[in-house]
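> forwarded from #structure-qc
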């Protein structure tokens, strides 16, 4: 297995370009299931999660053509309605095929994803919403079996704000008969991006980006050309990298308006940030100030930035409290950060972080995608060498991160297994 080796202490300087957003690309690629003919998607990041979804969709009968960051998808040969355990367990977002398969083939059989490192992560709200739209659903041998001759519009209240739940139901509703209202819907930029793509296909959707989304079903959708939005979590990760290393970097091809909560918190911590239209200039201060943070659904502070922010707080002056309210087990990076000298105490879903003057490099192990990013960041700030193993987690969601950081002046290399 590959390892990433970092020697800390270098100040990051220069310009870095953000890739397309993984969590926007996944549902948008999947939405091509709803059309016949070639869709063209631009700015698709080269990531393991994207490879996993194209593999799964190829098994379903979708054809792909790839040329660098451009991916073409044609679902006119869609024939199979099963997403097997082997692929769903690799990537939970595979469950997003449930709604579109049901809308298109009137049938879907999708493995239940099960828990993962960061929490139980049930899909009960996806299932409940589809049942309300008239689908008959059985759970059998670890699979969700869904059938519906014609999905019908329904008024659906989501008990918890769920990103992929909102996306799954939105994709099921676009071809349903009548009007579907999703209440307490997720408001993430990735939801708006998916709605934009679906609208371009001919779907009738209002309110995406607000807690109430109204979808009026149409008979047929057409293929599109669509550019994937920039990855806000990758952008945020580079913001923290600059902050941690007293760096001065320009992040380009990003969307600053998607990062307001992170920008506010970094400014409170003493980081200088200048927003351009599609760029951000970030300068790290000599001393980081402690700030409290609570993760919340968008537009609140993203859970996907919690681990990275915790590293920053580990080097801050004072004490910070970090509350994780989205996932029940998303502090798995803490024990690895403690091995690097961080002073963190966990109590329930809160972490109390007392800043230390210097982290120290150590061999550490990545346990999930954002935890991996946090260990890389800790390595950039630490004294000495940090060796991050199990970097396949990182490769699921960060495109060439070691090349990008190295171009900014970090001492970082990948050692191939
Ligand atoms: N939940 C339920 N029932 C459901 C669905 C969700 O109880 O039917 C709960 C979850 O257990 C969790 C909360 O609702 O406590 C929110 O989960 P959500 O469904 O929003 O998460 P997700 O859709 O599975 C997406 C991102 C995650 C990101 C979360 C939260 C994608 C592909 N994944 O997951 O991204 O952390 O939203 O913002 O969009 C990552 O990129 O590293 C990542 C984990």
């Amino acid at each position: 297995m590959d390892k990433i080796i970092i020697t800390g202490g270098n100040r990051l300087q220069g310009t870095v370009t953000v890739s397309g957003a993984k969590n926007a690309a996944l549902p948008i690629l999947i939405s091509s299931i709803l059309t016949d003919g070639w869709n063209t998607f631009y700015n698709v990041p080269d990531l393991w999660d994207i490879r996993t979804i194209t593999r799964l969709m190829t098994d379903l009968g979708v054809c792909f053509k790839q040329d660098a960051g451009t991916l073409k998808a044609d679902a006119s040969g869609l024939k199979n309605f099963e997403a097997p355990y082997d692929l769903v367990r690799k990537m939970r977002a595979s469950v997003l095929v449930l709604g579109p398969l049901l809308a298109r083939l009137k049938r879907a059989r999708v493995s239940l994803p099960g828990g993962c490192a960061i929490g139980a992560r049930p899909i009960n709200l996806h299932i409940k919403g589809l049942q309300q739209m008239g689908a008959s659903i059985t759970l059998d041998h670890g699979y969700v079996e869904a059938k519906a001759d014609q999905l019908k519009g329904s008024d659906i209240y989501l008990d918890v704000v769920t990103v992929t739940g909102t996306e799954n139901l939105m994709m099921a509703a676009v071809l349903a008969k009548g009007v579907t209202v999703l209440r307490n819907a997720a408001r993430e930029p990735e939801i708006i991006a998916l709605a934009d793509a679906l609208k371009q296909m001919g779907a009738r959707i209002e309110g995406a980006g607000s807690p109430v989304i109204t979808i009026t079903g149409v008979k047929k959708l057409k293929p599109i050309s669509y550019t994937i939005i920039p990855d806000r979590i990758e952008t945020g990760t580079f913001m923290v990298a600059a902050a941690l290393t007293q760096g001065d970097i320009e992040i380009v091809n990003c969307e600053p308006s998607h990062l307001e909560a992170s920008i506010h918190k970094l400014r409170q911590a003493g980081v200088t940030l200048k927003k351009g239209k599609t760029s951000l200039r970030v300068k790290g201060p000599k001393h980081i100030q402690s700030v409290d943070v609570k993760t919340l659904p968008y537009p609140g502070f993203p859970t996907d930035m919690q681990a990275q922010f915790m590293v920053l707080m580990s080097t801050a002056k004072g004490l910070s409290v970090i509350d994780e309210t989205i996932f029940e087990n998303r502090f798995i990076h803490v024990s690895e950060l403690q091995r690097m000298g961080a002073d963190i105490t966990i109590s329930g879903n809160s972490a109390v972080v007392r800043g230390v003057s210097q982290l120290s490099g150590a061999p550490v192990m990545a346990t999930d995608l954002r935890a991996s990013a946090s260990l890389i960041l800790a390595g950039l700030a630490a004294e000495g060498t940090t060796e991050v193993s199990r970097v396949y987690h990182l490769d699921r969601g960060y495109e060439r991160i070691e090349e990008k950081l190295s171009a900014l002046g970090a001492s970082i290399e990948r050692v191939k297994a």
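QC bot note: The chain has two domains: 3-19+230-415, 22-227. The chain has a mean pLDDT of 96.
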